[in-house]
Amino acid sequence: MAFVMQQMRAVIERFPDSGNGFRREIEAIEANVETNPHICLGLARGLLESCCKTIQVERGESINQNEGLPARAKREIDRIRLGFDGHPDAPAIETHLTALATGLNDAVAALSRLSNIQGLRHGGAANWANATKRHAALLASAADALSAFLFECHREELHTADEIVLRYEDEPEFNTSIDEQWPVEIAAYRYDASEVLFLLDPDAYKAELAGWKATLAEQPAEGEAQ
User: Fold this and answer.
1) Each residue of 136-176: pLDDT tens digit?
2) Domain chopping of the chain, boundaries
3) Which of 32, 158, 176, 186 suits a disulfide with 36, CB 3.0-4.6 Å?
4) How far apart are CA 97 and CA 83, in angstroms?
């Protein structure tokens, strides 16, 4: 039976605007799992990297070309919402799904490091043993599952964000921080700067809120080493 990247093929069917890059990489992997399994060690890794960079571009994130794939993928795993609403244990579900996705990323990283071993991708003697179809299928399947899962969660999060109507009362901590930094006074009257910004320029309010949340996310947790 021919190997098929089922999850990523479903992604390009569901999101045709994701570009032809995914399709080219998927087809290259499928064509070589059986005939040239050693090539797939690099191809599958390349697919996950392409997926992560596409997500970064769509989320307006800067791309550090010197960042390794495991770190890049972990960054997106931590940023993207992987769980779902409507369950009383949603935070725990998010935690465990993040751990699961991180485990897949660790597996892909370990398998892809095999490609750096002499002879498993290039540079070996002609009579050395090499990766087989089962090794290529393992790496390709892991990359297929993780790439598709991250991309679908990413697109779902963007779609949900577009639908959510932001309410002023939903962000009391942010509002307080704005009010304390930028008091608004006109004659004898004082107004909440956050509410003024929310009412007069909602887009600016959302941008400031996103920046504030990003700053909080970058701060080490209490008790964590600086």
Assistant:
1) 899 899 999 999 999 999 999 887 765 556 788 889 999 99
2) 6-163, 168-218
3) 32
4) 7
The number of CA neighbours under 13 Å toward the Cβ of 169 is 0
Model confidence pTM above 0.70: no
Question: Can you give the three-state secondary structure of 11-33, one letter per residue?
Answer: HHHHCHHHCHHHHHHHHHHHHHC
Q: Residue 130: what residue type?
A: N
